[in-house]
Amino acid sequence: MRDTRQGNRDTPPPAWLRALVTLLVAGSCSQFAYALHPRKGPFVGYLELASVGVLILWGVWVLATSRLRYLKGPPWSLWAFLAVAVLSLANATSLKAGAVEVAQYALYFVALYMLFADIADSSGRWLWYALGVGTLVATAVAFVQLLSGAEPIKVAGLTANRNVHSAFLAFALPLVWAWGCSLWPRREAWAVFVLVTLALLTMLGAPHVWIAIVAIAWVSAVLLRPGFWPATTPVVVLVLAANFVSPVHRTCNLEELLNPWETGDVYKLLREVGATEHQPLLKKRWLEWWPGLAMIADNPLLGVGAGNYQLNIGRPDYWGYLPNAKKTEPDTNNLYLVLGGSLGLAGLVAFVAVLVRFTALAVSGARRRDPMMTGLAAALVSLAVANLFTALLVRGVTVAWVAALAAIERAAGGQASEGAGRS
Asked: pTM here?
């Protein structure tokens, strides 16, 4: 007699549910949100609200097919991260901001992770399609902004600014490029390579374009095939030429990257420290590393509370004698200092453990020259480096890389099963 429980576990998701999940991940290139306060937030992303709707539909399907017992939860590192976030609320100045932040963590790292892990097959091709669509939309919008002569910071696709847009692409493009490599030498590979090239040209938030280029080069080296390099050399030449010749690209991706000083007249210094407007000022994105470290030292175990970093980073006792500029470019925070300051060393260690665990799984697949796992390994390393310059644990974008974590888990499990079958 057939085991009905086994049949329920192996029941494939309906096409409409898989399509909704694919659209959900594709929408991670956007950051549209409802603000509880127009300036201070918290901000609730429309994509997150849509995620809740998809989760409800998925939950109904899971119950209807008796799959509940077969669902696989997140690994211990993600549970630990969420637990620390909850405990950190004991130190929170604003419980409202903290509660919203913890709710988002639970949505991303528990509910959506389980959804993606259940819907995804071990091939992970759905993620290629999803990020391919997301990259296409983000690139099209950003290209229109670029060609219309918008200020560089507003070349942002559907995100808040150029930093989030560029960081998102630094994560997504290595994975999309691996898709093109898997299609080579078919005609479709050219379409993917052209898309990646155009996307690279919309990246004006330094240093993310260079992170993406290095990651893409590594993916190409791992998945090297006959005739591949001559076909992709024009991509490298065009992107490098644009960043050295085009005035806007050269200014944003070279001059701004190599110039550590603030420019312009919008940066007003605190008069208490005796600074003048004509005095050179190190960019706040670098200066803020010191008060971030001071915040960690002041609250080493659990930080100042989830969602409370911005409420505390301006405190004079953290800045000391450093000049604290009143304004700075948004989304130039170091995520590791943000997590260390808000969740303490416990939260920071848990988050790093998440990245290390999944990167190790992806790299093991890349050693077998698996295109999906190679792309995922490059994407996670890019994510880890990009988070030094732009905190990518933000609404919208986080959905994409949680999907990547779940895809790695499923792919690694599928490869293990295949290995066991061969043995």
From this structure: 0.91
